[in-house]
Amino acid sequence: MASLFGAVAMLAVLFVGLSVQASRSHTSVLTVPNGERFGTWMWPEMCPDQYFAVGFSIRVESSQGKGDDTALNGIRLICGKDGELNFMYTAESHPGFWGGWSNPQYCPSGVLTSFQLRVEAHRGNIDDTTANNIKFRCSSNPTLEGTGMGWGEYGPWSPTCADGGICGIETKIEGQQGRGDDTALNDVRFRCCARA
């Protein structure tokens, strides 16, 4: 009976934590105009209250040669608080399906505040990859670029989070197509939160 009570208490704590994380208020949503059209917007995931994205990692499928390329599959935010990198969380809207995760990259100081997406435009009946790579700008001004693929072009920079930084992510993912042309991640939008 005691173990059942402990399990119920743990589930209650997890539920409350997830509810707070999902309901964190944000001030704006950052978007870019060059995302592709395939797929569905997945669930948004937020950094915990008072935490902001201080770094990121991406999931990329390498070139498949004559096979079906998908390139960028997932983006994971690394959330920190007050410049402390010893206790962090991650936030990802959907992990994608193929490829491996890159080593994390961090702002030398500050938080992520804007982004730029590298996208290969729809190619008709030829193998599509859609999103290939991403860049972030830090509030301390350095630019961080992912280790994605080189197909397509970078579009314009998103607006910048005005007061605070990036605190949440939502990705547009095309599901697995079986024998069809897989594209995986097509677009992303980030939420900005203000500093308290």
The Cα radius of gyration reads: 18 Å
The number of strands is: 14
The amount of helix comes to: 10-25%
> What number is the mean pLDDT?
82
Q: What class would the helix/strand composition place it in?
A: mainly beta
Main pleated-sheet profile: 5 strands, antiparallel
Terminal Cα span: 42 Å
State the helix count. Answer: 1
The proportion of residues in beta strands is 35-45%
Shape: elongated
Spell out the helices and strands N to C. Answer: HEEEEEEEEEEEEEE
State the low-pLDDT regions, or none: 1-21
What do these coordinates show?
A hairpin with a 4-residue loop joins strand 10 (131-138) and strand 11. The relative contact order is 0.27. The chain has one helix at residues 2-22, and strands at residues 28-30, 40-41, 45-46, 52-60, 72-81, 84-91, 100-101, 105-106, 112-119, 131-138, 143-145, 153-154, 165-173, 185-193. It has 196 residues and is mainly β.
Question: What is the topology?
Answer:
Blueprint: H1 2-22, E1 28-30, E2 40-41, E3 45-46, E4 52-60, E5 72-81, E6 84-91, E7 100-101, E8 105-106, E9 112-119, E10 131-138, E11 143-145, E12 153-154, E13 165-173, E14 185-193
Features of this protein?
196 residues; mainly beta; five-stranded antiparallel sheet; 14 strands; elongated
Give a quick precis of the structure.
The protein has 196 residues and is mainly beta. It has one helix spanning 2-22; strands spanning 28-30, 40-41, 45-46, 52-60, 72-81, 84-91, 100-101, 105-106, 112-119, 131-138, 143-145, 153-154, 165-173, 185-193.
